[in-house]
UniProtKB/TrEMBL annotation:
Sequence ranges assigned to domain DAHP synthetase I/KDSA in this UniProt record: 38-336
Function: Stereospecific condensation of phosphoenolpyruvate (PEP) and D-erythrose-4-phosphate (E4P) giving rise to 3-deoxy-D-arabino-heptulosonate-7-phosphate (DAHP).
Family label: Belongs to the class-I DAHP synthase family.
InterPro entries given in the database record: Aldolase_TIM (IPR013785), DAHP1/KDSA (IPR006218), DAHP_synth_1 (IPR006219)
GO molecular function: 3-deoxy-7-phosphoheptulonate synthase activity
PANTHER family xref list: PHOSPHO-2-DEHYDRO-3-DEOXYHEPTONATE ALDOLASE DAHP SYNTHETASE (PTHR21225), PHOSPHO-2-DEHYDRO-3-DEOXYHEPTONATE ALDOLASE, TYROSINE-INHIBITED (PTHR21225:SF12)
Keyword annotations of the record: Amino-acid biosynthesis, Aromatic amino acid biosynthesis, Transferase
Protein name: Phospho-2-dehydro-3-deoxyheptonate aldolase
Amino acid sequence: MSADTPSALSHTSLPSSRDLKAAMPLSDALQTQIRKQRAAIAEILAGRDDRMLVVVGPCSVHDPVAALDYAQRLASLNQHLSARLLLVMRVYVEKPRTITGWKGLVYDPHLDGSHDMSEGLRQARELMIDIASLGLPVSTELLSPVVTHYLDDILSWAAIGARTTESQVHRELVSGLDFPVGFKNATSGSVQIAADAMQSAAYAHHSFGVDGHGVMSSVLTQGNPHTHLVLRGGDQGPNFDAASVASAQHCLSQSGAPAALMVDCSHANSGKDPARQPDVLAHVVSQRVRGNKALCAVMLESFIEEGKQPITANGLRYGQSVTDGCLGWAHTEQLLRQMATALAASNTELAF
Ligand SMILES: O=C[C@H](O)[C@H](O)COP(=O)(O)O
Ligand SMILES: C=C(OP(=O)(O)O)C(=O)O
């Protein structure tokens, strides 16, 4: 290896984010829509809009056709429930893995280990534009700061996952974004790490990054005040119950971090069993209706078919997750309708 070659087995050039954005631009109308959707989410998080935010969709996108099919159903439901809920679709194109596994559409869009990452970025951007064009706000988990450059203009909300909330690089990344971001509690269950992250991301940062041309750069970000905690459970179990929520709120207030709370009804809050997500949702809505207004957002993992399937070369079942198990569409629609009705009626006796 020569002295000027970075150490890796290979490097394959990608289009710059500026070039991909120029080839697949957002219309003026879409830019205006996304600006409004970001502001609407920020209003809910600030407690100035009484609706609840619902980030809902597949654990991961592996088939853009099925994801768009799901988005069409969600967009139509969004119109019916918009007095009580703001639905935002999970369009997760990167997956953090506990050890190894398929890492998402942008890494391996053909799901066969060919890792056509250039095509993955193109498909991800195209899909997000198609979904936003249905009128739906788009969200994702930000994992690689490089990938963020290709998609940041389309997003209305993003998560920093449990495995990366403690990372300084991700806190710097959030500091430069002008849309709301949820930091998840750590996989250990630590909420303090997320409270620290929110405070860090609220500051301006000097960091190392790349510009739109892909040129390595010294970057100055402005700080992001629109962050919040996402309770997703941890190694010791769930954290959506009233006592855990109160303890998280105490931690946020002691730290001077923003008070808004989202509960992720999946992951360690459901023991990764999608059938337990409705019970988590019922508990959260009940706490909200009983007066805990800081609980203003939930996350659900949901796709067309319930459950999950392994990735095999023999073909995949349409509309079913290839990562964590999801609720099916029919059940999701029923839950969201019940949630909206319960919020409208201030109904504390929920059984989803
Ligand atoms: O949401 C997805 C998974 O919970 C997360 O990416 C970890 O997945 P893994 O433990 O299957 O690798
Ligand atoms: C990976 C995810 O969540 P967490 O970071 O909570 O494990 C996810 O929401 O897809």
